[in-house]
Design brief:
elongated; Arc Repressor Mutant, subunit A; about 100 residues; three-stranded antiparallel sheet; alpha+beta; single chain; about 60% helix
């Protein structure tokens, strides 16, 4: 009846990362940190999980003498995000249907 929810997306920080990237396509680590309520260490860990799954690509470079980490959502990540959002929507549709009875 219900689709399984992707456990990688079913995390507050990872879902926040993907929600930002779905609109922006790319974002710097500092931008993500400023817009997600988490620590540097946790953000880094969650980015690694998304990168390992192929949902994002992480590019490390330098801006001047400072390290720069840029994250870009992949096609696989876009598909996973859309599937997750649609699956969650199905849960709410059933709730509304049952509430009316």
């Amino acid at each position: 009846m219900f689709n399984d929810l992707d456990p990688l997306m079913h995390s507050q920080v990872r879902l926040a990362i993907m929600s930002i990237l779905i609109g922006a396509r790319t974002a710097e680590f500092s931008y993500l940190l400023d817009n997600i309520n988490t620590t540097k260490g946790n953000l880094s860990f969650q980015l690694s999980k998304l990168n390992e799954a192929g949902y994002i690509h992480i590019k490390k470079s330098f801006r001047g003498n400072y390290p720069l980490t840029t994250c870009e959502i992949t096609e696989k990540g876009i598909t996973a995000y859309e599937t997750y959002v649609n699956s969650i929507a199905d849960y709410f549709k059933l709730f509304k249907k049952n509430k009316k009875k």
